[in-house]
Specification:
This protein has one domain. Helices cover about 45% and strands about 10% of the residues.
């Protein structure tokens, strides 16, 4: 599964990568968003556009998990990627 992005302000700035293990469209969308955020300056305004309803719903579900314990939260689909998102948002 390959994915990538292009900076619309500087089209020479691009990114492309291949992910392995458990390929899914939602995982690809999430990783594109995560890598785009990781490459920006800490005080930048980032706008991400996606038509992936599963990615959007997954993000909001990860903000307010119904799971009450960490063991249950770890079973949340792609929880490690969502954990990385929240860590970045809290520290940057």
């Amino acid at each position: 599964m390959s994915f990538g992005w292009i900076n619309v302000n500087d089209q020479l700035l691009t990114f492309q990568v291949t992910a392995t293990t458990w390929p899914s469209f939602t995982k690809a969308e999430m990783l594109v968003c995560l890598t785009a955020i990781l490459t920006t300056h800490s005080k930048s305004k980032v706008e991400l556009f996606t038509d992936s309803q599963a990615t959007i719903q997954g993000y909001y579900r990860s903000l307010y998990p119904k799971q009450s314990t960490i063991c249950k939260y770890e079973k949340f689909l792609n929880y490690m990627i969502w954990l990385a998102f929240h860590h970045i948002f809290q520290t940057l």
